[in-house]
Amino acid sequence: MNHPHSNPASLPEPSLIPVQGWHCSHFFYRWNRSELARLDPLHISRDRQQFCDVLNDVADRPQRLQSFIISGHKADLGLVMMDPDPLRIDRVHQRLMATRLGQALEPTYSFVSMSEVSEYLPDKEQYAAKLIRTGEDPNSPAFQAKVSSYERRLPVMLAQRLAPEFPTWPAMCFYPMNKVRNVSANWYLEPFSARTEMMAEHAQSGMAFAGRVSQLVTASVGLDDWEWGVTLWARNPQFLKEIVYTMRYDTASARFGQFGAFYLGYLASPEAILDHCCIR
């Protein structure tokens, strides 16, 4: 609905491409073994190839795509995809379901979100003010070096949040989350300064796992049933357990965090997923 005093010339063109950030989707599937049993065993190689071709298609794939073997009964396989165009992402799902093996593929869960820059990520001036609050001398060479270093790192940090490269580490964990809005604890009624301090504590806990765990937080407010999705990649599954346990003690999680179902996955090619699921 157009505001009567809005200036059309100042409005962005209608588009599916975000002004900032990329679309992100997580898809999880389970095999229907009864439907698999109906497949012609003489054509299973052809059916496997058709399935794998969809995920290996270089020409029409999203800019980020990884496939996983999912551990446990919630799903058998999962996909994590990102692209500026949401329909390029969704087309992979539709093409998979349209394959012969897709007739035996049951979607069990999906999560739709977008990448964003957190409002709690300080810019150069906010970072400098934080250093001063912690007792740094703004006239000292050490202070200037820290601010300059942060200024150089900031563009990389922003790019990693908006259009991240996916690590090729073996273990992945995904879960949706909210910030609670209870009478006794309502994140959205806390002052911004208090929320910033709690998120800084939360980030500090995560930094202890640098090099072992990589994190992507995407926003789903208005897009899905939860407010954020958290995707973690780790060099070893043990690190996933350790980082989630450690960060649960932070105030932002202990008092205000609400978490959905966890999905644990292991990075695998489409061919390896089919082999693991005994479809051969």
The largest β sheet comes out as: 8 strands, antiparallel, barrel
From the spread of the alpha carbons, the general shape counts as elongated
Domain count: the total is 2
Which blocks of ≥5 consecutive residues have pLDDT under 50?
none
CATH superfamily grouping of the largest domain: Apc35880, domain 1
From the 3D coordinates, which CATH architecture of the largest domain would you assign?
A: 2-Layer Sandwich
Descriptive tags:
280 residues; alpha+beta; Alpha-Beta Plaits; 8-stranded antiparallel β-barrel; 9 strands; 24% strand
Structure commentary:
By secondary structure, the protein is an alpha+beta fold. It folds into two domains: 23-115 and 267-276, 2-Layer Sandwich (Alpha-Beta Plaits); 164-264, Apc35880, domain 1 (Alpha-Beta Plaits, 2-Layer Sandwich), CATH 3.30.70.1030. It is built from nine helices and nine strands. The chain has helices spanning 33-37, 44-56, 86-98, 124-133, 141-162, 192-207, 237-247, 251-254, 270-276; strands at 23-31, 64-71, 77-83, 105-115, 171-179, 213-219, 228-234, 257-259, 263-267. It has an eight-stranded antiparallel beta barrel with strand order 1-3-2-9-5-7-6-4, surrounded by four helices. Strand 6 (213-219) and strand 7 (228-234) form a beta hairpin. Helix 4 (124-133) crosses helix 5.
